[in-house]
């Protein structure tokens, strides 16, 4: 990011600060860009009547023929059908390919509002084709993207994924563990074989790094119906 040098372009004379793209894209303009990524998506979501999200995390590398892709699609489709009776709730993913695409595809096919919280990356990430018009977001900063993935969410699903999925899951668990999120938000870890192999939560208890009660912060599910029932029975939409 370049430093802003007002002497570099004399043609800027008479340009209003909020129209000065040279400044807005400079290092010094970063705090303004961050503020825009915090405020504009919130305004857009509110304008479109979205008060709550069901947020699903998952790998960008999962192919269509994979079981996890198919299950993510079906779970999102069923939750999308449920959302028809809760018009201020939308299904949200990271907006990219793989499981994220499956999530948005299921929501889109069900007729629910399908949100994509995309991120600009040099590889792997691109927003998929199953996002509701005006709900196709692309963020520059990971932390502003995370903020919007979490702030309105009243339920979370972590499908099998890599470093990004782990990062998002453990950040949500930390916020709840530390009571920064005080609602009883249902969290589903989908895929027993995956989660029981990749993360040994019981060992964290054994080593004393988490409390036994922390295991109650989430539920490991292995079927679409089980995950759907857990989410819809435990989601608390009356709280903003």
Q: Can you put this structure into words, describing what you see?
A:
This protein has 240 residues and is α/β, with parallel strands linked by helices. It has a single domain (49-234), classed as Rossmann fold (3-Layer(aba) Sandwich), CATH 3.40.50.450. The chain has nine helices and seven strands. The protein has a seven-stranded parallel beta sheet, sandwiched between helices. Helix 3 (67-83) packs parallel to helix 4. The radius of gyration is 20 Å and the shape is globular. The model has no long low-confidence stretch (mean pLDDT 93).
What is this structure's SSE topology?
Blueprint: H1 21-24, H2 30-47, E1 52-57, H3 67-83, E2 89-93, H4 99-110, E3 114-119, E4 136-139, H5 142-151, E5 153-158, H6 163-177, E6 187-190, H7 192-198, H8 201-206, E7 219-221, H9 224-234
Parallel strand pairs: 1-2, 1-5, 2-3, 3-4, 5-6, 6-7
The number of domains: 1
Largest sheet: 7 strands, parallel
Shape descriptor reads globular
Average pLDDT for all residues: 93
Radius of gyration: 20 Å
CA(first)-CA(last) distance: 37 Å
Sequence stretches where pLDDT stays below 50 over 5 or more residues: none
Q: Tell me the structural class.
A: alpha/beta
Helix content: 40-55%
| CATH class category name | Alpha Beta
